[in-house]
Amino acid sequence: MSGKLVLVTGVTGFIAGHVAEQLLQLGYRVRGTARNQRFAALGSVSHPSLEFVEVNDLAKDDLTNALHGVEIVIHVAAPLPGKASVDETLETAIEGTLNVVRYAEKAGAKKIVVTGTFGNTLDPSMAPAFGGISFGDFDWGKTSKEEIYAKNDPFYTYFAAKLLAEKALWEFAKTKPHLDITSILPGFVFGPWAKLFPLPSSQKDFGTNSFPFMILNGMYPPTTPPWVVDVRDVAKAHVLALGLPQMDVGTKRFLVNAGNFTWAEGVEHLAKSHPGLIKGPLKGTAGLPGPASKLDTSRAKTVLGLKEFIDPKKMVDDVVDDLIELQKRWASAA
């Protein structure tokens, strides 16, 4: 039983909810941040080692009180693609990350884990994802604010903002070598929702799980790199990072991905695991525009200790079961 107090930002989020659950299971105390309306919805959540604090703007708010007594910070909160303007997305990603780590350092928290994305290792356009190559932990994409404004594409903006945020994080870390910082870079994250927190009340809260939801409604999701990982493994990676010794600045950076798994494979599997669920051919495109590249997760296994990943087929089954149950709840409440 650790008993250490961990601050988890954006605790109502998909990944953060699982991070909080796993921390509690291991005996940590958790303080989660949430914004106004989401904070109000947490009144029904009760756990003796879990508390919440309202933080409406991680990029600007004074986080002194939120970090009081905190020994470890896990910064998960991030803007979702298309949910905000380019300016707001950049500020939330970059200044949100820097504000959290600055206040964490002032509060005396030395161990910090930050959620990045696989997109930080390649061009935010994702074009190299279909070049049949391999990306590793120490690869970096290239972009600039000027390119982001020129592209004016929500997904490019999201990945580019996350890339610039991680670069800013490691530049800050160079000036504070006493801080122990880890960056977790997951593939596309899917899976069941954390059970401790309120389930989504509408489709707009599905996040990446909107992709399998599209399949249930007769349509292939948009064409994306086929890099998938179960949310429970992503949360586990964050927790495992807490047990690592301090290393050279910039070396605690880990790609976390279960492998390549296309939605065509997902549909084929669901036809066997959930007979009759998918009726007729799906609309949209099932193929990829080129040979899929791969993410090298060898260091996640040998250094981080995430030796096995949940099979993508189980991941798909579990998220689909959650989606079916959610639809039943919504129908009964209507």
Question: Could you characterize what this model shows?
Answer:
With 334 residues, this protein is of the alpha/beta class. It has one domain: NAD(P)-binding Rossmann-like Domain (Rossmann fold, 3-Layer(aba) Sandwich), CATH 3.40.50. It is 38% helix and 14% strand. The protein is built from ten helices and twelve strands. Strands 3-2-1-4-5-7-10 form a seven-stranded parallel sheet, with helices on both faces. Strands 8-9-11 form a three-stranded mixed sheet. Helix 4 packs antiparallel against helix 5 and helix 8 packs across helix 10. The termini are far apart. The mean pLDDT is 95. This is NAD-dependent epimerase/dehydratase domain-containing protein. Keywords: Oxidoreductase. InterPro entries: Epimerase_deHydtase, NAD(P)-bd_dom_sf, NAD(P)_dehydrat-like.
Please give a handful of descriptors for the protein shown.
334 residues, alpha/beta, Rossmann fold, seven-stranded parallel beta sheet, three-stranded mixed beta sheet, 10 helices
CATH T-level fold name: Rossmann fold
CATH class descriptor: Alpha Beta
Q: Helix coverage percent of residues? A: 25-40%
Strand order of the largest sheet: 3-2-1-4-5-7-10
Order of helices and strands: EHEHEEHEEHHEEHEHEEHEHH
The stretches of 5 or more residues where confidence is low (pLDDT under 50) are: none
The number of strands is 12
Helical run tally: 10
CATH-defined superfamily = NAD(P)-binding Rossmann-like Domain
- Tell the overall outline: globular
Separation of the first and last Cα atoms: 43 Å
Q: Can you tell me the number of structural domains?
A: 1
Biggest sheet features:
7 strands, parallel
Class inferred from helices and paired strands: alpha/beta
GO molecular function: oxidoreductase activity, acting on the CH-OH group of donors, NAD or NADP as acceptor
Keywords: Oxidoreductase
Organism: Hebeloma cylindrosporum
Domain NAD-dependent epimerase/dehydratase: 6-244
